[in-house]
Structures are given as C-alpha cells and as structure tokens.
Amino acid sequence: MDHSLSLHISLPSTPKFNSNRSDFAPGFLAGFSFWKPPLTARPRSLAVLASAGSSHCELGSFNTPLNPRSSVGKHLTRVLQNYRQLFHVSVQDELKRLADRRDAAVDRMLLAAGSDEALLHRRIAQLKEQECQIAVQDVMYMLIFYRFSEIRVNLVPKLSRCVYNGRLEIWPCKDWELESIYESEVLEMIKEHITAVIGLRADSSVTDNWAMTTIKQAHLGHVYVASILYGYFLKSALLRHHLEQRLAIPNVHRNGSSQKTFLQSPEMYLYGFRNLLSGRRRSNVLPVAHNQEFNSNQEMEAEKLKRFLTGFDSEALQRCAKLKSKEAVNVLENHSCALLGNEEVGFVERDEVIATSFSSLKRLVLEAVAFGSFLWDAEEYVDAIYKLKEN
C-alpha cells in the first residue's frame, strides 16, 4: 500500500466556507465534472503544531473544540452534565424563549415605524437577532454533541493539542461506534468516500491502518470540511430516496400483478413524511411479510441507493448539498475553525506537513461525516421551534 497521501478537494481557502459548492462529494460522485483529480502531497518540512510538553489531547466528555459563547449554550452544557434526562426539555424551553424574545423585538420595531424612535427600535431588533442567532447556534452545537454522546464518542479536541513530536495521533479510533449509526447501504458509500479522500481501502489490514503518512495542514482542513458536507448531503439525499419510495408502493391486484401507485390518501403521506423526519426505518411504514424477502431487499439497497444518487441532476445535487440555514453554515464554520485553526482568525491555508497514521485520518473523516448528518438533524429540530434564517 502506498503510504503517501494523495488528495485534492476544491473548497474555499478563505475562513468563510462556501456551502453552495458541490465539489465536496467524492466516492460515487467522483466521475462528475466538478471532481478534481488528486494531487500528491509532498512533504517539505515537518511542522509541529504544538510542543510535546504543552500538548493536551484528551478526548474527554466536554473537551470539545468549540466552547459555547452564549449563556444559553453554557446552561445547556450544565444541564447535559448534571441532568441529562432534562436536556431535550431544556432545549425546547430555550428555543421557545429565544423565539419569543426575537419576535417581541421585531413587533416593537414595527409598532415604532414612522416615529422618532423607529431607528432605535430597528437597531435593538438587529442586536437582539444577532444575540439570538449566536444562542441558537450554541443550541444546535449542543444537540450535535448530545448525538455523539449517545454513541459514546467524544469529539476530537483542538488538533493543536493532539500533536506529539510532530506526529498527530488520535486514540481511541471509535470506528465501530461511528459506523453503527448508518444503514448498510449508506455505510458502503461512506467507505468509498474514505477511500477517495485518504486512500485507505475498506479491506485494509491492521498494518495498513496504522501505517504512517503525511498530509498538508490545508488539505486536512479541506478533507474534514468536505466530509461534514458529504454527511449532510447523504442524510438529505437518503431521506429524499426513502420519501420517493414511499410515495409509490406496490398495489397488488387479484390477478397477482402489481403496479406502482401514488399514495392515495393525505393521511398516509403525512404519516410517512413524519416518520422520515423522525428517522424511523421504512419497515415501520411498509412492513415486509417474509424475512427472506426482507433480506433480499436489504442486499439490493446499496446498489439502488447508488443508482438513485448518481441519477441526480445538478439542481438536485445543489438542493441536497446546500446547507439550508445561515445558522448551520456558521456552526460548520465555527467548529471547523476551532478544531483546525483559530476561532478568532478562522481557518488559514497552510503548507505545513503533518505526520499521522491512516487510522487517525479515518477517525477524523468518520467524525466529520457523522457531524454533517447530526447537523442536518439539529437544523430540522431547531427550525420547527425557532425559524432559522435561510441560506
């Protein structure tokens, strides 16, 4: 196995990541025109992001790269630490309170329109919206963190704390836990994505996994952000795939033949859609009579899903890949900058070369894909209570 890392992902080089780009989706999208051929990362010098003595790479329960900036975020952190069973109730209460606070400021601004105080109330409404937006982003981040805690996976802390003598190493790898959240057909596509961005095959040996390689710091940032966007895209596209399947179900006639028909009652449509949003499997809506038939269908799902996704036109790709809200864009940007760079100055392109193992790179990619999937869930959850700003 070639232990030099080859990759090139065309993502923006500025601190502001462009969520409208579609060139983040490798693997099954590698044949599309927007996919760039890989370039080999040649090490020129070995940069130490942090000295061995000052490194503090602890994957503790609350040792996250990004710290909450709002009082709401800090409150939810304490609730999750001490009263975990009350976490979702607290989230709902805080979101409703934030929505009421923002709406009240807007109402006062509208009432003051045309008066001498109109400009003042407009400014107050703007500041209140900014304040609420920061708090809502903290809520979304805590919802994502909660999902990771459910599978007993701690987020990787700032990478600058995880470099010892010029070598980046992340342990434990938590591959099984991070893979357990996906259905088999989705997991196959994620494995293809891992192969595309870091060159590690799904059937690689233990020796290959722990082999050392080198990667430029800028490339590592591109891989991580691209993988978040890929996880977000997969979640959106998969739900669309399931929805289209449920909108046309077999209608068995007396002569034994079957044909695809659109769901005939609005109640059935709404039931299926609500189950999609809650993440339930298709068997909850369309039960299968025979286990043998179910197993046979499961084996075909991966190929069906891949054909479905490769059949997307550019408009459908952008619709599934684009982050729907400004808040989601900010969560992705802030988390990535905190992990890979600096929260204050953002992500900076650097040519420094980092030595690491393929196992550590795989851990980062799997975390990023899961982060993107959880970001989609958090965005849907929050938007149902607190209307997010459209991206």
Automatic annotation (TrEMBL):
<protein>
    <submittedName>
        <fullName>UV-B-induced protein At3g17800, chloroplastic-like</fullName>
    </submittedName>
</protein>
<dbReference type="Pfam" id="PF05542">
    <property type="entry name" value="DUF760"/>
</dbReference>
<dbReference type="InterPro" id="IPR008479">
    <property type="entry name" value="DUF760"/>
</dbReference>
<dbReference type="InterPro" id="IPR038925">
    <property type="entry name" value="At3g17800-like"/>
</dbReference>
